[in-house]
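Hi W., the flavin-adenine dinucleotide complex you wanted:
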Amino acid sequence: MIKRLDNIKLHIGVNERELLKIAQKSLKKPVKYFKIIKKSLDARDKGNILWVYSIAFSDEPERQKPALEKLKGSPQVAVVGSGPAGLMCALRLVEHGISPLIIERGERVEEREKTTREFFEKRILDPQSNVQFGEGGAGTFSDGKLNTQTHDGLNRDVLEYFVRFGAPEEILYLNKPHIGSDKLKSVLKNIREFIVQNGGRYLFNTRLTGFNSSNGRLKALILQNTRTGEESELQADCAVLAVGHSARDTFEMLYGSGIKMTPRDFAVGVRIEHLASEIGFSQFGKNYKLLPAADYKLVSHAHERTVFTFCMCPGGVVIPAASEEGGVVVNGMSDYARNGVNSNSALMVQMRASDFGENLFDGMEFQRTIERKAFEAGGRTYSAPVQLYKDFAADRISQNFGEVLPTYSAGTVFAPLNEVLPQVAVSALKAAIPDMDKRLRGFADPSAVLTGVETRFSSPVRIERGEDLQSVSLMGLYPCGEGAGYSGGITSSAADGIKVAEKIYGSIKNHMIFI
Ligand SMILES: Cc1cc2nc3c(=O)[nH]c(=O)nc-3n(C[C@H](O)[C@H](O)[C@H](O)COP(=O)(O)OP(=O)(O)OC[C@H]3O[C@@H](n4cnc5c(N)ncnc54)[C@H](O)[C@@H]3O)c2cc1C
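Structure:
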């Protein structure tokens, strides 16, 4: 029988082996099988910071999950996009005995890493393989944070898949789990090997550029090799569309093909960088060095526009995240150790249709315009425009960095961010930063560096799908993940991929498709 103990507190620095002793004391006999099922930090009292655990123990080993039901000789399903949504969809299909063909415009992760480094260091952008596009999708060069606000039961499956393919086991029980960009890359390779060994295939450097249909049903995908330009047609009755929020050309193609989409609101902003030690001290007091790099999550209603921090990267770096020529986009990334000098976070302002227009692609154009202004302000070289917080607040161009040095590797240029961002965003940020400082001392540090611009917060469109998860305009097409507007972040996108896979499996099993 499995027993569970909750709310066990250990002082920071105490070895976790103590937990076993506590379990044995409670059971009054030696514990055979023991595991942590929850671990969180209680830092309310900075003089007495505690780790809080739930543990489970039993006399028998944990039962393995039963294997999923498999179809024999099932048809091939195309999965477009190998981000968290597409990959987890493909993985689940494989486990059901369905062979997916994964179509990915970017490179496999080994080559993608080199291509992306070329951009980070030499500012040579490959519009087909970059931080947004390529194996692993937008999450590959990230912090790999896995917490989500959704309560989908499939979130657990996502974490278990990550652990099975090489992520640290702690992500199953930490309340704020993260993998780190370094570990994520090997997880991606392991997933690829498993998919290929089980009958799946990958087509890298291959972009979906159109499709053929008949009587409202998908018949074939039109593909283009992104290196040679060669076009091909692939017969497909079923395709998962997991293209992410940056596939602007694909959204335009879908619109041109009559696929129903609707515009969505989104947010724009900057990355803010502080010294990680300052954030640590502010959150944990003098003991911060004994703890993992501190994070934060802040919201401000000081302005009529809500401002919020997003995708905080403790001990991470700000990275060049553009995917279109002539635009600067920033984002954040950390390795597993999160041991960089700075910590950064996106600082986002909610935008509304009244800011950018009611038409389907007005939001996308609005994002693009801001990215181009940032490109101009950065000197047209993919260097990013930056400003110290004190100078942003005073409407003057910075002259020198203070204690915080920017980590954006493609170079920075002192520039007025108030001329790059929409005015409403500028005034909202000016009101929010000192307001946030009331909850996190040092947030409004005069030497904090603001780097522009953060525009790829979410998809500017939704690709409408019905209860059966198929496009309302085309049977056989399954819009999925963040680009389609059904998730935000790695875990919820991956969970949406599994949900779509289960739907496809159910349809094939019931002979609803491929007849
Ligand atoms: C730098 C960075 C850091 C991030 N950090 C975090 C984090 O720590 N935690 C978190 O939860 N989220 C983070 N995110 C967000 C997260 O990565 C996304 O929410 C998630 O990747 C969305 O998954 P997806 O599969 O829906 O789309 P994506 O990951 O965007 O994948 C879409 C894939 O489709 C491919 N594609 C696009 N168009 C086509 C086409 N026409 N043909 C073929 N292939 C195509 C793309 O190349 C891409 O690989 C981060 C994002 C970035 C950019």
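The first strand starts at residue 3 and ends at 11.

W.
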